[in-house]
Amino acid sequence: MSACTNCQDLTRKYRCPKCLEPYCSLKCFKEHKEKNCEQKQLEDTKAEELEGEEQTCHEAFPTNDTVPKALLENLKYSSELRSLLQNSHLRNLLREIDVARNVNNAMTAAMHEPLFLEFADTCLKVVDPMTEEEVKEAKLLHS
């Protein structure tokens, strides 16, 4: 991991919302915003994503459960998901998972949070909606 461009701190766990440049603290973010933040970096990042390079702290790990990118695109249209993401606690949980050194431990901890479970269920409803038969079975189980 390379150091923060402003203070050389190695714990750059945040990203600039404009250009995605990593930073470590509010002080460094303010310095970055005033001096170094360029929209060009964001455009370069988008070009890399189009070339198949995913911008994340972790390597992609395709499995049998991997959701195709086209289905993931549907998440941006979910008003229920958008509403959940207004919650700062959920956003903080998601950031913690994104920067975690041990993603499995972070996910296990998050799965104990009712808000995270609601978020995960909402995502699943969007990318893999239940069939009518599955809905009937779920209603029978809950009654």
Give the spatial strand order of the biggest sheet.
1-2
Q: What structural class should be given to the helix and strand makeup? A: mainly alpha
CA radius of gyration: 18 Å
Q: Supply the number of structural domains.
A: 2
Shape verdict: elongated
Main beta sheet: 2 strands, antiparallel
Mean pLDDT: 77
Helicity, in percent?
40-55%
Number of distinct helices: 8
Topology as a string of helices (H) and strands (E): EEHHHHHHHH
- The proportion of residues in beta strands is under 5%
Task: Describe, in plain words, how this protein is organized in 3D.
The protein has 143 residues and is mostly helical. It has 2 domains: 1-55, no CATH class; 62-143, no CATH class. It has helices at residues 26-35, 39-50, 69-72, 79-84, 88-99, 103-110, 114-127, 132-142; strands spanning 14-15, 22-23. A two-stranded antiparallel sheet has the order 1-2. Strand 1 (14-15) and strand 2 (22-23) form a beta hairpin. The radius of gyration is 18 Å and the shape is elongated. The N and C termini lie far apart (51 Å).
